[in-house]
Task: structure prediction
Amino acid sequence: MPGSGTTPVGRDASGAPPHGPGPAKDARVRPESRSPGGDSIIRRLAIWGSRLDLGDAPDRVVAHLKSQILSQLGAARAGYGHPLGRRISQAYGSPLQRDPKHAVHSLSMATVCLDFDDTAYAGHLSHSTVNVPLIYASPLRLDGRQLLTSVLAANETAARITAAATLGPFRGQTAGHTHLAGAVAGRLRAENASADTWAHALGMAFSVPTWSLSRGFFSTDAKLLVAAVPVQIGLSACDGARFGLTGPEDVLEHPQGFLHRFADIPLPEEALAGLGSLWHTETFSYKIHPGSAYTSAAVDCAVELHSALGGVDHRDITEVVVEGSIFTAGLDRIARQHPIGPDSSVAALNFSLPYNVATALLTGSLLPSDLAHPAVDRPDRWELADRVHTRHDPAFSRHALLATAPLGQALRRAGERAEAWVRAIDARAAEALPPAWLEPETDFRWATKNLGARVTVRLRDGRELSVERRGAVGAASGADGTDHAALARAKFLACGGDPEAADLVGRLEHLSPDEVARLVELALAGPDDDPVPGPPTDTHVTGDVTHDVRDFRKDSAMETAVLEEAYAGLIAAATAAPLGHQASAPRPDERDADWTLAHIALSDRLLASTARQVLAGDPAGLDNGPAMDPKAVEELTSSVDRDVLVELVRRNAAEFIGLLAQTPENQRATPVIVRLVGDKGEELFSGAVPWGEIVRLRAEDHIPAHTGRLRRMARAPQES
Result:
């Protein structure tokens, strides 16, 4: 569903249908959503964010921060290098101008103009959460660690508030309110401001949120203001709060407040869930092409098909069919309501799936220059675009709605309330909703964004070529992950970025204030800016990332790398089959695969329970009986499909590993009373086993054995 309005999901990670009543159906903010002690959502976020330190975040989250910053710098360079970006510079000045407010205003327009920015589960965050700390870094003399901390605090604050209003009229880039929070948190964390200042600045900013209109957003340059204006509101609120101006701390949840106007189903729980353990920063998906995330997978397929076509004349292509989720189909439907052609705005071109797919088929890529003259004047692109048709495939919608982003987590938080909301928007999407008993994720380390597509090219000679993807290149993809650091670097360099700047981002947590200032100038300098000076004589710039190193990690926790690798292999084996091509009646080996996945999901739920006991210092026990119970496994496998089973494995494993990552290494020796039974209920073992040994066996024996089993099943010939 497009960013300005729509689609879909459902609730339990336990692997079994829920017991007891579901969530209330009232779409208003409920009293119990207020935090303990009557503190407002803003107050809680302000206290947490103002005290947040980079050392609070795991290494993998810090790695995402660096990729996010470098990729956003690539988007900035692409924006300013485009004719539209040059008009932005003429109107609003350079991002390196002295006044930081004006600099951020210009930069936020440049990074949004080509839709080349990256996305988190809840929001296009970087136009404020990266841009504001970057621009304020030099005047505030931030070192690299302080810059990263500011981006982290801004990400987490903005994403959480955005998530709370996700089930409403605004998502994606149309959710300008994201940048009220991003600007406030990004600047105030950089200034090391107090929680009181945060609370009043957020209260002021969210008292005057922006309301985007689709009339201008989808087809004109008015889209440029969608982030720049709320950023200015946020910065202005910071100025006032620093000098004693006040705002209502309860403006988010108040009956006359933000969530009541900006959310159809307010989700205040999303704003506070898992503070310090549920990191929205690691839900990022990274774009390698300019354009909407709803078209990215289709463009990736077209790029791949370009090589397969081997120079076929575009006139010999009779039809191009793009099949995708309700998100892709919905965006295409909206985009086709606006005339599209060589003289269309960049926004209209960005949203045109036919033009983008046709361009990728003909050229093997989609570049910023393809959104400007003379590329848009080529008649072959428009002739082929006229033969591109989009169809909704329920299998892709099902897969998309199971994923964390763009709506899955919010829909699971809404629970039973989600179906009516989705059905009112699109009944087709409602039919694709997963079970309502799926619970929200408690750990985002394996977040997913599965906006897949299938592109089929039909030729005049009768041939038919087709390519399918479960998700776009660079999208959050679960346990198998993506090399986001490599993608971000390649994007930045392809947009004309200086390799030295990319190297500086790579070791950002170790940079001095002078090195950070040089990074910003190197990364954002344009042809009309003064030459960037070399490093000051008193600054030691070196490729050795160990200089000035401060160990900002917390006490050593249990190592989880081997276990994560084991689960990555398991999930890859479970998702090897093409989407939507499973047999209607499962083969015996498919039934066995479903049994295996259900067993693993149930087992991991039990292991997570034991992990909590160990972490809390309570007497710990583990009985695998419930995961071996044929009735429990059969109940689960008969009630859901393969995609849901894989999702249960992914989320339960993430929860289990997340708890291990919080467990001190010295608790590996904690004795756990274990009872193991076989598949017929016979007792195989009873006694005490060190917790670390249980985890080792899971990583080195149990999960690899299940992975081998799934791979053997996949290779088995189908019975006639």
Remarks:
- The CA atoms of residues 456 and 466 lie 4 Å apart.
